[in-house]
Amino acid sequence: MRTPLLLAIAWTLVGFAVLWGVVGWNLDHWLAHENAYLGWTIRVLGMFAAPYLTMLLFPIIATMVVGLYSERLILTVEHRFYPALAVPPASRWGDQIRSIARLLAISSLATILALPFYLVFPGANLVLFLALNGYVLARSYFDLVTLRRMDWAGSRRLWTQSRVAFILSGIVIAALFSLPILNIVAPVVGIAAAVHLLERYRAMVMP
Fold first, then answer.
1. In a domain, 70, yes or no
2. How far apart are CA 153 and CA 155, in angstroms?
3. Cα–Cα distance list, 129 to 31, 59, 88, 134, 178 (Å)
4. What angle do CA 41, 46, 49 make, to 5 degrees?
5. What is the mean pLDDT of each run of 10 residues along the chain (207 residues)?
6. In terms of CB atoms within 10 Å, which of 54, 88, 96, 165 comes out highest?
7. Residue 98's domain spans which residues?
8. How far out from the chain centre does Cα 72 lie?
9. Cβ neighbours of residue 39 under 8 Å, at least 6 residues apart?
10. Distance between alpha carbon 89 and the CA centroid of its chain, in Å?
């Protein structure tokens, strides 16, 4: 897993820097220029707001980046722990694209709607961050590993049966995203955990 892990880390850092720049530029462009008297104050506040907003969006970006190397990571875990597994069928790109589009829409909308709560209730922002990202990450990793071996309808049925375990796993991964350094490797840990959970529940419902 070393090569895909290092590549994922490198591109995740690039994505983080780009996202930070985009957020910072938008704060400066759309807010600081609205009022010349408040512009300096807003720029100073933006120095703190930009990294904060970037961290809120970071799990989504990191998960998308690691998704580029997910097949190699999943195969590594399968070969190490489940060598008897059959070769998965050809990728169902339609289902994968459908899943990515749906999750991006859900996560983006949820982050935007939750932003006022992050700002108004600072004491509860960690709980909200874990709950929101825990669910989104759980669905992301679930679809990522499940749609390789099951069709859309089958994966929905399995989600109904196993969602509690996946969501709890997603919350743990979201907690890793809140910790410096560990947040870089959190998506890789999430993929490995999802593979183990998938095989556990597949063994239960399809002995």
1. yes
2. 5
3. 25, 10, 34, 8, 9
4. 135
5. 74 76 66 55 57 69 74 89 86 67 72 71 76 87 88 89 94 88 83 94 76
6. 54
7. 55-205
8. 18
9. 32, 33
10. 25
